[in-house]
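hiii so um. not sure if this is the right channel but i have a protein structure encoded as tokens and i wanna go backwards to a sequence. like what aa goes where. can anyone help
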């Protein structure tokens, strides 16, 4: 519609999650009309990130080093590992600011229909870390989906077989939430995961 180069840019922007044709078109036109220096910075940053960013050799998160800053940090608790599905989950927990252990990033969840098994998630690598005997607690923070729950149970079974204590993050009513506005599924989970005071 606009010409081959502009159409390619719009199509390229559509690879981003949540970006449809209209949003991609608006972004492309904005960059070309009003912020060409921003477009150049964006292009250079994308190329550099694709070339330099890989996976941490210990926790599998995104990093430009062989071992990420969290895994290298000697002040982190090395006997506690929190298992998450993706780097965005790791960043969310880090932003909360209270977890002081280390992580293991699965890069997905078990999904046999999509051909994603334990091998694709690096569960063997996690089990090897657990076999060292240095891990006292494994915290499972997979998403509350059918696949996330199945993944958590699979990992829990492996960890328990090695004598590692396993816990699951709590879920339920959000802080500041009013019960009348919380959906039934969330209320049921909150009641099932209640704790003594």
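sure thing!! here u go:
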């Amino acid at each position: 519609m606009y010409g081959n180069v502009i159409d390619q840019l719009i199509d390229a922007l559509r690879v981003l999650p949540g970006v449809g044709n209209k949003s991609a078109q608006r972004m492309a036109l904005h960059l070309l009309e009003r912020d060409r220096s921003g477009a150049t910075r964006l292009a250079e940053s994308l190329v550099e990130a694709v070339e330099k960013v890989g996976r941490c050799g210990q926790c599998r998160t995104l990093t430009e080093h062989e071992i990420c800053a969290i895994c290298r940090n000697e002040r982190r608790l090395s006997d506690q590992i929190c298992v998450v599905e993706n780097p965005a989950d790791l960043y969310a927990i880090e932003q909360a600011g209270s977890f002081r252990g280390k992580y293991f990033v699965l890069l997905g969840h078990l999904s046999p229909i999509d051909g994603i098994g334990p091998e694709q998630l690096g569960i063997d690598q996690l089990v090897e870390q657990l076999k060292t005997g240095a891990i006292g607690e494994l915290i499972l923070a997979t998403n509350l989906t059918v696949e996330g729950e199945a993944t958590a149970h699979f990992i829990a079974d492996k960890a328990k077989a090695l004598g590692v204590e396993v816990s699951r993050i709590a879920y339920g009513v959000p802080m500041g939430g009013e019960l009348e506005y919380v959906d039934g599924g969330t209320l049921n989970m909150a009641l099932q995961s209640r704790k003594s005071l």
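oh and The first helix runs from residue 4 to 13.
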